[in-house]
Input
Amino acid sequence: MLEVKNIRKSFGSLVAVDDLSFTAKAGRIYGILGTNGAGKTTAFRMILGLLKCDAGSILYNGKKIDYSTSSEIGFLVEERALLVKEKLSNMITFF
Output
């Protein structure tokens, strides 16, 4: 299970993500929709550990995400293909 709790990310005076929270269960597919600049990509960069949150926490099965677990989360952006691993029933996929 992926738990995103009250995450926030700012770039100077621009607040890209403000108090985002959700829970995603394994084996399900979720979609996050929003206009360009809404903070979707920034949120996923924080989830995958590419950006550090200014506030809040992100947990996968109760632990912080690292390289050993990041491959279990699929992230499909509009113009890219998703490469799927063998363990589909345990993967959380966002598109």
About this structure: The longest helix spans residues 40-47.
